[in-house]
Each structure stands twice: as C-alpha cells, then as structure tokens.
Amino acid sequence: MPAHQPIEAPEFVDLGQMSYDAALAVQRAALEEAIGVRERGSAREGRSLRAGRPSEPGEGAMAEEATGGEVDRSASGWPGRILLVEHVPAVITVTRRPEAAGHVLATAASLAARGIELRETDRGGDVTYHGPGQLVVYPLLDLNRLGLRIHGYMRLLEEIVIRVLARFDLQGVRDPAATGVWVESQRAESHGADRGWPGAEDATAGRVTGPPQGLAKICAMGVRVSRWVSMHGLALNVACDLDRYRLIVPCGLAGRAVTSMEAELGAAAPAIAAVKAVMIEEFRAALATLPKRAADSLPDRDAAKLSLRIPAP
C-alpha cells in the first residue's frame, strides 16, 4: 500500500436539533461500531489488538486507560463518522474534574426554570454550555488511521475551525494557554462576572490564565479517546444566546469573554446551515491530506507534525 494513500472520507450525519442524551447515545453506538470493525479486521489477519497507552491528555482531552503494548496503527476499515447537531433543550455539561462542578454558577432550580439541563460528561475539559444557535460537531474518528496522537488531533480541530471562520471573514486564533479558537472582539466583559442576576453564587471561581487583551472564545473543545477512537468534539457559537454563559465559568477560565459569529458579524452573520456546509467542506479537505498509515515509519513525536500538513486556503 502506498505510504501516502489518502484517508477514506468519513460519513457526515446531520442530526438536526437533538437532546444531549440522545446525541450521546448516537456517539456511543458509533464508537462500538468502530471498535467492532477494528477487532474483526484484526481477527481476520491473525493479529492481536493492542490499544497502547495514549500520550498524556492536555486541556480539553481525556483518554481512557489503555492496555499495554505499542499502538496498532493498522487501518481499521472504518472510515469514521462526523455528527453535526444543535442541542435542544439547552444543556450545561460538567466534566469529572474535581473543580468543574464549582464552575456552575447557577443553582439547580435556576437552571430548571430556564429550561436548561445539567449533565455530567466523560470528555476532557471543564464546564460548557450547548444550545440552539451553536453548531456542535462530534467527530468519531480512528486516530490510528490518521496517524494522530491526542495533542495533534486537538490542533487539527482548531485548524479546521480557524479555516471555517476565515470563510466568513473572521480571523480565528489559538491561545497557547487554553484549548479552543478565539477571535479579536469588543466583548471584553467576562460573562458570569456580574452578580446582579438570579442564580449567581460565586463568579470568582475558575482558573485565570492572563488572557491576551481583546480575545474572546468563539469555539470550545473537549474530547475523549477510547481505544484510539475519538468522541465528543467542538462547539462553535454561531448565533446562540450568549447570556447563558453567565450561568457558568466557561471552560473553567475566569475572566475570559465568550462571543459568537453573530455578535462579531452582526447582520452579515451566516445562518447555521451555511456554517454546517462549510464545516463539512473543511473537515473533508483537512482529512484528505492526512497520510494513511504514513506514521508507521515515523517516531511517535513526528506523527502529529506530519498530520497537520494542511494546504493554505
């Protein structure tokens, strides 16, 4: 097999508006399908399946404990599935980090009165909000086939979002101190820092990162990797209710502003359907450049560098 054979395109599934619980069930079914395909392929070839220990997860990433051995980089035969969804009803998701629950600033009664669900999640990261007008993307991808470690995968997601924003004349940037995508914004206020609203408890909670002046977060990210198949993903604020972020310390980052494409572009902001279409195009373009099984011949530290060779638009 040629070392740089293109990756087979994943299936894209638009779930429309769906509850967090229902979409999580769809993710878990796809994860089981992916692992099943890989295990059947390994059995046919007479190989033992060895998951390998993931590299240490960073901000926004969580890896399931793996059993020993080197990573099996062979192609699974499962091209992947990328889910696109708006979560209705709105939901606040809280990770299992010890401090994460303290970053929900509203009481349970206050959330219920607003029709907002509260759910524990097994992804990495901290606390975030999902609701109408926000495009959530759940890529279920076999990272072995992509030659990616966790950190390289997170940078790939950021790159895709940056390219999506550029298509709508917004310049997205990375912040080395915090996973996700940011834009220069006039929205300098910190959502949730005003205690003059019902349900606020302690808006001083959270991790202060010393934010670059003028940057506001437009896309949050948090993933889980199980047997080297990714779950969860990214949430891009298109035209969502930004006041809902006052109910939490977003991503556990105190003093950081949150924005949306609508807040930045005004009347020129695209409909969420247009953003979905561009997101699919950019995912396809990025994944098409990843070398299938090329990392077989590279040390682990070089795999992520190779996977991020994405041509400029």
Give a quick summary of the entry.
This protein is α/β, with parallel strands linked by helices and 313 residues long.
Strand fraction band? Answer: 15-25%
Globally, the shape reads globular
Give the quaternary arrangement of the chains: single chain
Portion of residues within helices: 25-40%
Termini separation (Å)?
Answer: 29 Å
Instruction: List low-pLDDT spans.
Output: 47-59, 64-75, 189-211, 292-313
Radius of gyration: 19 Å
Q: Strand tally, please?
A: 14
Structural class: alpha/beta
- Major sheet characteristics: 9 strands, mixed
Average pLDDT for all residues: 78
The tally of helices reads: 7
Write the element-wise H/E pattern from the N-terminal end onward.
Answer: EHEEEHEEEHHEEEEEEEHHH
Structural features, described:
- This protein has 313 residues and is of the alpha/beta class.
- Helix content is 27%, strand content 24%.
- The chain is built from seven helices and 14 strands.
- The strands form three sheets. Strands 1, 2, 3, 7, 8, 9, 11, 12 and 14 form a nine-stranded mixed beta sheet that branches.
- A hairpin with a 2-residue loop joins strand 8 and strand 9 (178-184).
- Helix 4 crosses helix 6 (272-288) and helix 4 (150-167) runs parallel beside helix 7.
- The longest helix is centred in the N-terminal third of the chain and has 25 residues, at 20-44.
- It is globular.
- The two termini are 29 Å apart.
- The model is unreliable at 47-59, 64-75, 189-211 and 292-313 (pLDDT under 50).
Keywords:
single chain, 313 residues, alpha/beta, nine-stranded mixed sheet, globular, disordered C terminus
